[in-house]
Amino acid sequence: MKNDKSDNREDLRPYVADMSAVITHIQQAVERQKNDDSFKKVPQALDVVTKLDTILKRQMQVLESHLEKFPAGGVAGAVKNTVTGVLGVFAGLYDKVRTETASRGLRDDYTALNLAAVSYTMLHTSALAFGESATADLALRGLKDITPLIMQINEVVPHAVVRELTEEGKSYDASLVQRAIKSTQEAWATSAVAHA
Fold it and tell me: Sign of the CA dihedral 158, 164, 168, 174?
């Protein structure tokens, strides 16, 4: 019979594998966006996906290395078994390579990063419950890595939308971008205060 620590690690392994699958899937889509012309036309959008790609690649390596320490470790087999369940919701967003506007790509990134954030929260909580502090710390670091990028996407989307409207021949007041950024940031700040 296995000891409790070994059982806990075995029970936690699928959670780590799920997290790895989520991050890998997002990174693959972001990597495509870095080379997309619509992102290159919006410097702020290209900047955020470049940062995101770097962070996600690092997280993939950290998760893979961490998973190898578990019984029957290694990402390859674990991800193959979990990817369909974890990413079923994602299929419509990221599974097909498509040409899209930067604003829609950023919207998809925003959605994906929120899935990653809640997945890291679940992994952190599960690891605490199983007494696995190394995994809990890893999950919390991952969450702290991506939350600033979610906020940055909020600030970049208005730039992308206005750029696309301009390309369609629409005119706009130049102060519109800053007004949109300010009002959306205020909405989030108000929500945070109300929640506290």
Answer: positive
